Task: structure prediction
Amino acid sequence: MMHFGRWKLISILAVILFGVMYTVPNLVPEAQRYTVNAQGEREAISIWQYIPSRTINLGLDLQGGSHIVFEVDMDEVREQQLENLAADVRQTLGEGRRLHRSVAVVGDEVVALMVRTEDRDEAMERLQDLVQPVELAGGGVSLEQNLQLEAPEGEPNAVRLSITQAQFNSIRVRTVQQSIEVIRRRLDGMGTVDPTVARQGDSRVLVQVPGADDPQAIIDVVGAQATMSFHMVAENIDPGPSGQARVPPGVTVYPVADPEAGSPLFVAVESRARLTGDNLTQAYVTTHPSYVGPVVGFRLDTQGSIIFGELTRENRGRSFAIILDDEVITYPRINDPIMSGSGVIGGGYTYETASELVILLNAGALPATLTPVEQRVVSGSLGQDQIESGKMAVMIGFALVIIFMLAMYGIFGVFSTVALLVNVILILGALSGLGMTLTLPGIAGIILTIGMAVDANVLIYERIREEGRRPKIKPIQAVQKGYEMALAAILDANITTFIAAAVLYMLGAGPVRGFAVTLGVGILTSVFTAFVVSRLLAVLWLRGFKPTKLPL
Amino acid sequence: MSLALAKFLPVSANVPFLRWRFIALAISGLFIVFSMIEFATVGINFGIDFRGGIQTEVIASEETSIEDLRTLANSLDRGEARVQGAGTDEDGRTSYLISLPLQEGEGMEGEQAQNDASRQLRTALTETFPNIELRGTTVIGGAVSGELVVAGFTAIGVALLLMLIYIWFRFEWQYSLGAIVALTHDVIATVGMFSVTQMTFDLATVAAILTIVGYSMNDTVVVYDRIRENLRKYKVKPLDEVLNLSINDTLSRTILTSATTLVALLSLYLIGGEALKGFSFAMIWGVLIGTFSSIFVASPILMFTKVNRSSDDEIETVKF
Result:
């Protein structure tokens, strides 16, 4: 207990050295550590090339920024999937001899009713073709099947189809994954610095943008569906002044986005899309002689160019409409065939709105609707204030605890002060080295650790005091006994607190996690510093001064 | 460095804690009953994390009064707005918290309404008061706030359970029972305190309660550890004397640790800024109540449950 071998000593010093190496970069501004050389590369100045460059990640509550959680609307996706399934069923049963009277989505099922009861067996056979193993999001297939087919006994002419949970889970994972990719492209297009986009829970996406203190700008871009399609304007159909007029099947009425004064508010178009946003290869902001101000230019892929060329050649004189998120953004008249596969969308854009549309078109459409369900936004100045007051509280708390320990325990107070200093260095080093994020509650965790780290020292010193009262005990024996006897209590006490921190980390939501991190790390480092660092100092002191009486 | 004030603390005091156990338990009982009544009648002032809604922190110029902000926020027709002062920043300017209630609507419609209300509030503020500084906005929808409540209470429950299993494993079931009663006591008393003061109860408060639980457990374990040791040492001493001796043996440590933790927390409370006030206040209360419960609740329970003292395993010493 009171003997430190050479290797033990070396490893203690190594741990402390690591702590220091990972802590110092946080104390020196980047400009004093790195320069940019002639080739534009970052170069470490002198000693800094031997020291890790990583610094502590500050949470958005400290550096300022937007933290937004979006919910992917899986109900909508489920409805869409059922509609698609119904269409497939119609096609399957309609091939050759038509078997069904009707196919409809009823609740969570697709119900197909046969014209004749005897046809049900054949229908079941044909529909078996739709049943396939579930494709897993990560590639490969599952043992489970995508659909469940049922021929209920009570309804002799009905077949019921439902999408299995396994299939739906696979769809959900893919939908969320695609959403994340689209969001990343959009945020890159916006020029945000270091955004984080990550899945949260089953069907949520977390977006963190440091430095952005206007959440609406992000929500507008990230949350826009950006489903784009090209339709022919329906001929000779008046959608009416409020878009309520009855229209024949196959025709849909859409409102016009930003209509000009005197022009119609609604346009009736053919429901069938001739081209979709998927055919788009590139969009860009440009100008065009026919329009005032910026316009959005676009280029179509090869297949899209061919379709668009035929469309414009066959429908000269008619109009086509470009629809974005259920609004008509433009519906020009076709004067000449467009064979180049490129065109412009113009009218009424500012540079900002045109750029936004370009970002959306280039990033592609979201596979489902995203709605913000949680927003936490902190401005840079508030973040700075919180850093300042947090720093101040740490320093003052630290100073008060040191004064207290020095006053109470004299030379042993010095040992615990050194241990406490090492403790803070190790906490900061661990946060920095392991790439953990420091939040405002995290700072609270550090302060609390400082207060509680002393507990281990107090337990030991009080025990030493107690043992020192025994008759004929030497100081070194009292110290040894004190450390030995206090160990069990210290371990039990810290393990229980560590349990609290671990639970907080696993179950806690965002801001609280930061607190659990520093508290948990702090418990580990404080046991180490109290038991190893302060003991080492006490042993060195006892050996060096050989006191005959303990000053406690 | 010959100064060491700890010298003046008695190594083992002789305070008859156990003799006061009935008075102490009565006080605790009153605390609990009062907390529960308070909780049932007045209720808790839940923060935005648990209530849902919209909250924006602003710094307005001096000519803008709290009334101006309230009038504007209420004119949006988004439910009853609350405006409160939220301390001053570095330059001495006052900041205000403007809150709107959770917007109504089924599922995603409600979430959309939340976002619309937040947008409306931010736009109205910047248009009406050109010099206003928007410092932060929090929007919590119905789904998320519900989940946070569940997660918060689950966290407290799971932590309690794991600690109890640990204590059971390390000690005996009687100790485990004593600890659960003491910890539940602390949690209820803290919730009661939040009901009395009507301080905002949010995610940070849940973190504070968990830390209080950890701290109180820490205190209790230290006393228990000594009780176990003394029970092995004094095989024939009456139980109440052993319990009392153990509390007294660890008394100086209890006082010193509470004092240092309180010192650190006080600095957090006084200068840690507005965001951590509720947290540090809860923690200060928790340190006091946790210390009290370790001495007056956790230990006397061992009296009542007749802790098993026949075990004759060796005193544990852990070697390095």
